[in-house]
Amino acid sequence: MDEAHRFHLTAKSAGRSVVQGWWGSEETARRKLSSWMGEYGSMPGARITLTGERREAC
Question: Looking at the 3D structure of the chain, how many domains does it have?
Fold first, then answer.
């Protein structure tokens, strides 16, 4: 995984993807998480998830 796209954020409603995005900065991804909670959190069955990809040492 490219270091520039390390943190993945997804928003789902009723089991369907609404929006997703990738960010290289954890700080940016957490700001987006907060924003998306306000924007999408009231949708039926809302689920907003932030995950971080860990790079394996070569």
Answer: 1
Measuring CA to CA, how many Å separate 51 from each of 23, 36, 48? 11, 14, 10
Q: Is residue 54 pLDDT above 70, yes or no?
A: no
Under the phi-then-psi rule, with left for phi > 0, alpha for psi from -120 to 50, and beta for the rest, what region is 5? beta
Residues 6+ apart with CB under 8 A from 28: 7
Q: What is the pTM of this model?
A: 0.78
The answer to whether position 57 is within a domain reads: no
Alpha helices (runs of H) in the chain, residue ranges in sequence order = 26-40
